[in-house]
Amino acid sequence: MGGWLFDPAHWSGPTGIPVRLLEHLGYTLLTLLIAAVIAVPLGAFVGHTGKGGFVIVGLSNVLRALPTTAVLILVVLWAGLGDFPVYVALVLLAIPPIMAGTYAGIRAVDPVTVDAARGVGMRESGVLLNVEIPNALPLIFGGFRGAALQVVATATIAAYTGAGGLGRFVFDGLALQEFGQMLAGAVLVALLAVLVDLGFAGLQRLTVSPGLRPVGTGGKK
Amino acid sequence: MTWIFENWDRFWEVTEVHLRLSVVPVLIGFVLSIPLGWVASRSATARAILFPLANILFTIPSIALIVITPVLLGVKILDEINVIVPLVIYTVALMVRAVADALSAVPGHVTAAANAMGFRPVRRFLTVDFPLALPVTIAGLRVATVSNISMVSVGALVGLGGYGQLFTEGYQTDNSAKVFAGLIGTVVLAALADGLLLLIGRVLTPWARAGR
């Protein structure tokens, strides 16, 4: 069954595995960027002010139940084929975990720390940007990694409406009844998901203050 | 919305299929995750195997699992089992952790008291540990149910039933009202199932609200 995946002919050209892999990665990263621009400020505002928490929870629940396939198809019918519908569907998918992670992260910062920051004369913007967000980073990253896994997995569906990415192999294989190609697509998506998660784990190690590393993991309690 | 009322028989038919394809895996997955979660809550070795495995299973995209399952099981691609098996896998992957966390959170003095009163392991699990673990378990079950209801639609991309059929048919016939009807159906079904589980949780754990 691995024959399709390791055939050199499938590793070159404009419809080869490297091109589809990069398309898939492109969908994922741009989706996460757009979702971050929307979800992080919202989550941070609500977390910082403590106002509107129920809106965040309610919005997250509704968005979570939204079937991505339906959103994709509706936007295609409305705006035509292309990458735009893919981004709309995937961004809606990525917003809830990122928003919830940011909100929960900022709410979980020790109030004593926030109080101390105000006590030394920080403005509200300084409290949020220099104290709350750095302290909330582990949970914010948690939200991003959850979103990334979902987006990598779901970007596969983009190929149903003719877009690119690794889903092409799944749907083309299905149309041609080539199970080797379908399987190759599925395996590549799972591999990409693991790689993207590792990338975020590395980024997390680089950016999160060592003082915030979880205590007791890896050692005995 | 008018599509739903004008095509009520069809809408009800896909609703029934959708409900069956999402509820059956949740039930099977839930039952399987109880012993697995129990083992994970007792043994660090089991945790070290089950939790990473659950994470890996979760990264496999649903469409991929749905197309691979028939090859692995040797069944036809239009068999409903091809949606049920992947959703059982996702449910177990999610619920093992929830059940293990919930059981680990049962206070030690409570289990010690039950032991001292002469409860044997099975009876202690059924009448003490498991009921106390219910709130966290049901929270996990709500997430699993909502995501299953949303994921069943993916099966329609390979020709299986449920609201997803309205999506693919609507796409092929350029009928956005039909797609929208399926979307509304999915969201309403998810909200109803979520509310029902919340209610069941409240009825089963009256002590959780005592003394407030």
Automatic annotation (TrEMBL), chain A:
Protein name from the UniProt record: ABC transmembrane type-1 domain-containing protein
Primary localization class, coarse: membrane
Similarity section: Belongs to the binding-protein-dependent transport system permease family.
Keyword vocabulary terms for this entry: Membrane, Transmembrane, Transmembrane helix, Transport
GO BP: any one term: transmembrane transport
Organism domain of life: Bacteria
SUPFAM superfamilies with a match to the protein in the record: MetI-like
Domain (ABC transmembrane type-1) ranges: 21-200
Topology within the bilayer: Multi-pass membrane protein
Naturally occurring in which organism (per UniProt): Lentzea aerocolonigenes (Lechevalieria aerocolonigenes)
Keyword Metal-binding: no
Places the protein is found: Cell membrane; Membrane
Membrane-spanning segments: 25-47, 54-78, 84-106, 150-171, 183-203
CC annotations in GO: plasma membrane
TrEMBL record, chain B:
Membrane-topology annotation of the record: Multi-pass membrane protein
Location relative to the cell: Cell membrane; Membrane
One term under GO cellular component: plasma membrane
Primary location recorded for the protein, binned into one broad class: membrane
Domain of life according to the entry: Bacteria
Similarity remark: Belongs to the binding-protein-dependent transport system permease family.
Protein name (Swiss-Prot/TrEMBL): ABC transporter permease
Source organism (scientific name): Lentzea aerocolonigenes
